[in-house]
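Query form — protein Transport permease protein

QUESTION: What is the three-dimensional structure of this chain?
INPUT:
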Amino acid sequence: MADQAPAASPDPEAPLDSEASGEGTRFPPRGESVITGINRIGLWSLYMKEVRRFLKVQTQTIWAPAVTTLLFLVIFTVALGREGRMVLGVPFASFVAPGLIVMGMMQNAFANSSFSLLSGKIQGTIIDLLMPPLSPGELMTGIVAAAVTRAVMVGCTVAAAMLLWPGVHLGVEHWWAVIWFGLMGSIMLSVMGLATSIWSEKFDHNAAITNFVIAPLSLLSGTFYVIDNLHGVFQGISRANPFFYVISGFRYGFLGESDIGEGSGPIAQAAIGLGVLNLAMAYVVYHVLKSGWKLKD
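ANSWER: The structure tokens for Transport permease protein are given below.
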């Protein structure tokens, strides 16, 4: 027995062969993906992580926007809606309410998605989002879906708060328009927020986009007026603002009237146009996210 050769130790670098080892399982070669298709568990985990993040501070993320938007309604109704002023055949309060609801939805969708990656870059925890086995599409979908969830919660809360104000009627004429334009506006700002989060290197950059891009586009989108009252040049500028179509289309769902154009044709064109715009924006942001620009440098 002393002259028996010792057994060769297995090579740790060699893949495990099920036939040679007698086992019924085999590890995939190094570098080969184990998860095929959509990583549903990872996507759901990211989505729930983002949702729980803003729900932990729901006083700031859900209830505060409702109070702020209600203050807008009170101030502009008192200032511009006195003496029974009618706009598009309804009292001024009912005219301005849908626009304020969807404006709050869009602004909070942007705020949520623009914070996700930026906070990780500043705090040094960006690796927690980049290391898990999530594709760029899954990472983008989880962040955008959570931002849309926050937008919907804010919209429902704002609508409930507005019902407390006398003179506001929120009867729905076209549910498809309320749902479609609400989602398109939320997705559009979610994607814009994600692009801002990728580009920004500090919170000042994020605040600059919020103050100098998002706020002007929101306030100058026909939320408090119809563009027919504007000069022709400013009407053209308003029609180049995608926020205008979101707000007017969302308002059409409640009132059955809008200042996009007469009939349902212009509304349908606006709905299709917003869908195409969101697809184009998502395509660009997806490829930027996939490249790792300002994330993996």
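ADDITIONAL NOTE: Confidence is low (pLDDT under 50) at residues 15-22.
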